[in-house]
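Section 3.1: Structural characterization of target chains.
Under the original work plan, the team committed to producing a structural model for every single-chain target entering the pipeline before any wet-lab resources were allocated. The record below documents one such target. The sequence was received from the expression subgroup and is listed exactly as submitted; it comprises 55 residues.
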Amino acid sequence: MVVFLLLVIVAMVLGLVGAVVHGLLFLLFIGIVLFLADLAYLARLWRGTGRRPVR
């Protein structure tokens, strides 16, 4: 869970810098992609917990 929170913070910082600094718009896009990857990672963690294989 620490990795998830760290990546969310990095995504927000990259998005903020990319939106504010002129000429660094690509950082905004990298931040958005990183945030979407974090959401996919979190969904995978939540889906995998609490289930046992059916035999």
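The mean pLDDT is 83.
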